[in-house]
Design brief:
Elements (H helix, E strand, L loop, with lengths): L3 H5 L7 H17 L4 H23 L20 H8 L3 H9 L8 H14 L2 H14 L4 H13 L7 E3 L4 E3 L24
Antiparallel strand pairs: 1-2
Helix pairs in contact: 2-3, 4-5, 5-6, 6-7, 7-8
């Protein structure tokens, strides 16, 4: 790829919306193409490099350098392009790439990244499930475990945990309330505030 603008089919005066539309169109074409997965991966990497180069130039971040080094930031990752999309806030693009992965290539990292996307969108139940699957597939990976534990420990309302008090077990919702009248069913209340 010599010119990222030509690759995307946009001019130098294109808006971010034009660039995003071109990216999505080409990504869809690549995903739906009847080509080997290795070629799809290569084409997606080229597309991501072109997209990032054009956006960076548009935003004045960096001029297009014409090298592939930006794709090597996450050594050992099967989905470095997805991580790059997530880190730059392009969740739809990251999910498009993940959804195009054939089932035999779905790994623990795939589930983890899917969980990151869900969590950033606020879909905590889905994120929890993805992190749990990633941890069960690769129980020794600290990145997956940290994400799962963080979500599990910080969840409120979706995943109730029990806290042992002197007299009774209380869920994590009730421990933060002001009075017993506000408690949920774990203490016989109905979550109707009295104060």
């Amino acid at each position: 790829m010599n010119n990222p603008y030509e690759y995307l089919g946009v001019g130098r005066n294109a808006t971010e919306k034009d660039i995003m539309d071109a990216y999505r169109r080409i990504a869809g074409d690549i995903t739906n193409a009847n080509i080997p997965d290795s070629e799809k991966t290569q084409r997606m990497n080229e597309l991501n490099n072109a997209y990032d180069a054009v956006l960076n130039e548009l935003r004045g971040t960096t001029a297009y350098a014409g090298n592939q080094s930006q794709n090597n930031y996450n050594n050992g990752s099967q989905f470095s392009d997805v991580r790059q999309c997530i880190n730059s806030g392009r969740l739809d693009d990251a999910e498009t790439i993940l959804n195009g992965v054939p089932s035999y290539m779905v790994t623990a990292e795939w589930h983890y990244l899917k969980g990151v996307i869900h969590q950033r969108r606020g879909w905590l139940n889905e994120a929890y499930s993805c992190y749990q699957t990633a941890c069960s597939m690769d129980p020794h990976n600290q990145e997956y475990s940290a994400a799962f534990n963080s979500l599990n420990n910080n969840s409120r309302g979706g995943y109730r945990t029990t806290t042992k008090t002197k007299d009774t077990d209380v869920c994590d919702i009730c421990t933060g309330l002001l009075c017993a009248d506000c408690c949920c069913e774990c203490l016989g209340g109905d979550l109707i505030p009295c104060c």
